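Review form for a predicted model. The reviewer records the input and the model, then writes brief findings.
Reviewer: anonymous (R2)
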Amino acid sequence: MEHNENPISQLSDQECWDRLAAQDVGRLVTHVRDVIDIFPVNYVVDGESIVLRTAEGSKLMELVISEDVLFEVDEHTAEDAWSVIIRGKAKRLEREAEILAADALPLKPMVPTLKRNYVRISPSSLSGRYFVFGEEPSRD
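Model under review:
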């Protein structure tokens, strides 16, 4: 591989949403006091937000206690990679209209378990980077 003068570039918001929409598994980062957890989740893009499903348990409890989350998705090949990070607020969907709308989304549990809770992540910031792999530049 050759050295690339600009191996890292910023993705536009639209490029970030396009890449998020092309994937279906990401990582959700929660925090409650001094405890930080990361969960692999399947998701769907809905407008300019992320919707996921979850069962009762620690993930849902942590989202209810602290709505501030990070959500990350990435992909790589032998030649390049990208990463998109959302900083935002997670909200459990509770109104019937919200739940019915979420039920209509193409979102099924990743594993065959019952997941009755929908969560929407609304971004406060969105950032993405694209990386081209290559040889390390000369140190001289």
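Findings: Residues 13-21 form the longest helix (9 residues).
Further findings: The chain is about 20% helix and 45% strand.
Recommendation: see findings above.
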